[in-house]
Amino acid sequence: MFNIGPTELMVILVLALIVFGPKKLPEMGRSIGKGLREFRKAQMDIKREKLHGIRVQRVPRRRTAGARLSRPSSSALRPRSRR
Q: What separation in angstroms does the CA of 8 have from each of 2, 14, 16, 17, 58?
C-alpha cells in the first residue's frame, strides 16, 4: 500500500512525538486503534448482511404437509387421440 521503510517510520514517529507530546501520543494511538477496530467491525457486518441476503434468496421454499409433489400419471403423458 505505502512504501514506507523503517527509517521513514522512525522520522514520522519522532515528529508525532514532538508535535503532540509524550502524554497525548498514547491517547491518540488508542483512539486511532478503536476507530480502526470499529471500521473493521462495520465492514464485517456489511459483508455478513450481504452474504446472509444471498443465502436467504437461494433457500428454496419449504413445502407444506398438504402440498405433495405428485408425478403425472402415464396416461397424462400419452397424446390424446382425435375422435
A: 11, 10, 12, 14, 50
- CA 38/CA 19 separation, integer angstroms: 26
The residues near 27 (Cβ < 8 Å, ≥ 6 apart) are none
Question: How far is residue 54 CA from its own chain's centroid?
Answer: 11
Q: How many CB atoms lie within 10 A of CB 25?
A: 14
**Whole-model pTM?**
0.48
**Residues 20, 28: contact at Cβ < 8 Å?**
yes
Cα-atom radius of gyration of the chain, to the nearest Å?
Answer: 32
The reported pLDDT for the residue numbered 76 is 54
